[in-house]
Design brief:
- With about 240 residues, this protein is α+β, with helices and mostly antiparallel strands.
- It is built from 11 helices and 6 strands.
- Strands 1, 2, 5 and 6 form a 4-stranded antiparallel beta sheet that branches.
- Helix 2 packs antiparallel against helix 3 and helix 3 packs antiparallel against helix 10.
């Protein structure tokens, strides 16, 4: 079976279990380390935005790549983003494999150090943030289960054409500098293309916006069923944290 490359819709919309399966399958069939690292960095960015749990996706695969693959510029450029994936002894092995000295490591990673804190699992929002959003953004009389929060980010492609990327279940209380940094990381990835044209080439920060939407059904049975499904989904997400 030939596995197809993943696109932005899959990386930012698929359920965690299916996404991990697809990335692992892609690597198994292609051994394409650079693309897998781009996929994984995109997921780190998404995890920093969404309140769903996408922390440590494909952790064992990432560890295998950094601990066994031939050292390369790509590995050196990306290693610090994945620092939390390793135990201390494992990380020291990675650092020594990729750099001649601690000084060389520090110098090479100096430029991205300030932004790596935004993709760390410990700083990612979780589904529990919805409680805080409901308290600070909504009328307490309205059932929070009915509401969705998301970002609409606007990017320019390589030819200057604008397109929208929606990040669902997002932490809309995130400081603008944090969101700006996360979106900018995506502009460095070359995996998102349409007809050979890079899609995430530049962020149009002034046109990005937060959105709060709500769902109501006219039929009481459908409305009750919707709320029950939403509560079950949120309970399952809390259990997975």
């Amino acid at each position: 079976m030939t596995v197809k490359p993943l696109n932005e819709r899959q990386l930012f919309r698929m359920k965690r279990k299916n996404l991990e399966k697809r990335i692992n399958q892609y690597y198994l069939e292609t051994q394409d380390i650079e693309t897998v690292l781009d996929y994984s960095l995109a997921v780190l960015v998404f995890n920093g935005i969404t309140m769903d749990n996408y922390s440590f996706v494909c952790k064992e695969l990432i560890k295998e790549i950094f601990l066994t693959s031939e050292p390369s510029d790509k590995l050196r450029d990306y290693c610090l983003y994945f620092y939390d994936f390793f135990e201390y002894e494992e990380w020291e092995t990675v650092r020594k494999r990729l750099f001649k000295s601690r000084a060389a490591f520090s110098e090479h990673t100096r430029g991205i150090r300030p932004e790596t804190k935004f993709v760390r699992a410990e700083s990612a929002p979780t589904i529990m943030k919805k409680e805080w959003l409901h308290e600070h953004y909504l009328d307490d009389k309205v059932e929070k289960d009915r509401y969705d929060y998301y970002y609409e980010a606007i990017f320019k492609d390589e030819q200057g054409k604008k397109h929208k990327q929606k990040f669902q279940n997002a932490d809309i209380s995130m400081p603008s500098n944090r969101l700006s940094t996360l979106l900018t990381i995506l502009t460095r990835l070359t995996i998102f293309e349409k007809n050979g044209i890079r899609r995430f080439y530049e962020v149009v920060h002034s046109e990005c916006q937060t959105v709060i939407s709500h769902t109501f059904y006219g039929d009481k049975d459908e409305d009750a069923a919707f709320l029950q499904r939403r509560r079950e989904e949120e309970a399952a997400q809390r259990d997975s944290l």
